[in-house]
Design goal:
Blueprint lengths: L4 H24 L8 H7 L5 H16 L7 H6 L1 H21 L15 H32 L9 H26 L10 H20 L7 E3 L8 E4 L11 E5 L13 H20 L10 H7 L4 H11 L4 H18 L8 H7 L5 H12 L3 H9 L1
Helix pairs in contact: 1-3, 1-8, 3-6, 6-7, 7-8, 9-11, 10-11, 12-14
Length: 381
């Protein structure tokens, strides 16, 4: 396991999954039928449903955003879980230390399986699943707008992880609803399939999660519940809370050709389009595999917001596709010149700024409608 914050949050999530399934496994081992194990299961709150959602949300943030730090605001997300721990402590103190008998547990049922807790815990996880999906969607949109290697850091694993977690919730919901029609689905024996399905998904997340080695370098802030700007951050300044933000770039939707621009907008496009094109082509900036919107803005002595708006509205492309177009044109020029005779096609792609074979193939087909091999065969025929 790498020493990354995201790996630690993933470990926390997997630990919570183990706690979730533990009462069922220990119950089958006879713990509910024998003391002192019965009281351990009764009074030890193993399923921590209110913690699972926040931990997933923290995992997604730490995976996608290098600037994510666990601070005071993050503690607020854990208050429901802490509240349930205190509730469990009250039960233990009342029954075992004050009354010396079952009071809260007089019905012989484990409070961890109370309907109110299971249902509220389910909705808590669904809410944080929505937050995580929203965060990931905004992240993808931002990456396409600010870096030219977005395909390499789109973290498709995040989609798979969130869909796997959603599957866990769907399994839980299916068995919950099914128990109304088939009561045996709600007992220990009947719920076997639920926990079996849960375990398969759990193993998938554990294995593929730690196998994911992609790391992002772009730090940012997002407004999950609004449509404000995404703030790009400078990591070295994160330790000083007085002024951590050094630049701002809007996540701008690609404009359609039918959109009418104001006079000032048209003037801005007329001024900046040739300057951007000249810098990308004449300086061969597209050859930098990690070229970013910030770099272009600094080179042209302006701010990222202007560059982003001009590329989106003037060229009808996001930054990632805009730079890849020039890379594809450079590859085509080299192929026309016959350079494929002296080096591999992938080597040519790397020389033109691509950082992987998969990214090159996808970008080439997106621009030309053909694979590199098909295009080259067409040129030679």
């Amino acid at each position: 396991m790498n020493d990354r914050p995201s790996d630690k949050w993933l470990s926390a999530f997997l630990f919570l999954c183990i706690l979730y399934i533990s009462p069922w496994m220990l119950g089958f081992a006879g713990w509910y039928d024998n003391q002192p194990y019965r009281d351990i299961l009764f009074y030890l709150p193993l399923p921590q449903l209110y913690f699972i959602g926040p931990v997933i949300f923290f995992y997604i943030q730490s995976l996608l955003n290098p600037s994510f730090r666990f601070g005071k605001k993050q503690w607020l997300h854990l208050l429901p879980g802490i509240g349930y721990l205190l509730y469990s402590m009250v039960i233990f103190i009342t029954d075992k230390l004050i009354l010396h008998k079952y009071y809260f547990l007089a019905d012989g049922s484990d409070r961890d399986f109370d309907t109110w807790y299971q249902v509220s815990g389910f909705f808590s996880m669904i809410i944080y699943l929505f937050f995580s999906l929203r965060y990931y969607q905004l992240y993808k949109k931002l990456m396409l707008q600010v870096i030219s290697y977005a395909d390499a850091v789109l973290f498709r694993w995040v989609q798979h992880f969130l869909m796997a977690f959603l599957s866990m919730q769907l399994v839980e919901l299916t068995f919950f609803i099914g128990s109304f029609f088939y009561p045996n689905l709600g007992d220990y024996v009947g719920s076997w399939w639920k926990y079996f399905s849960f375990s398969i998904i759990f193993y998938y997340i554990a294995i593929t999660g730690y196998a994911n080695s992609v790391q992002t370098k772009v730090s940012f802030r997002l407004q999950l519940l609004g449509y404000g700007n995404a703030m790009l951050l400078n990591l070295p300044l994160l330790q000083t809370e007085t002024n951590p933000v050094i630049e701002e770039a809007e996540v701008i939707e690609i404009q359609t050709t039918s959109d009418v621009l104001a006079n000032e907008g048209v003037q801005m496009l007329d001024e900046w389009k040739p300057r951007i094109r000249s810098y990308i082509v004449d300086q061969q900036a597209y050859q930098d595999p990690e070229l970013s919107l910030t770099q272009v803005a600094k080179a042209l002595k302006t701010n990222p917001t202007i560059i982003s708006k001009v590329i989106n509205q003037g060229f009808q492309l996001n930054f990632n596709d805009f730079i890849n177009q020039y890379r594809i044109e450079a590859v085509k020029d080299k192929l026309k010149a016959g350079e494929q005779k002296t080096q591999t096609l992938l080597g040519i792609a790397y020389d033109c700024g691509f950082n992987s074979k998969a990214t090159f193939n996808r970008a080439f087909k997106k621009v030309t409608g053909l694979s590199p091999k098909q295009w080259l065969e067409g040129q030679l025929s």
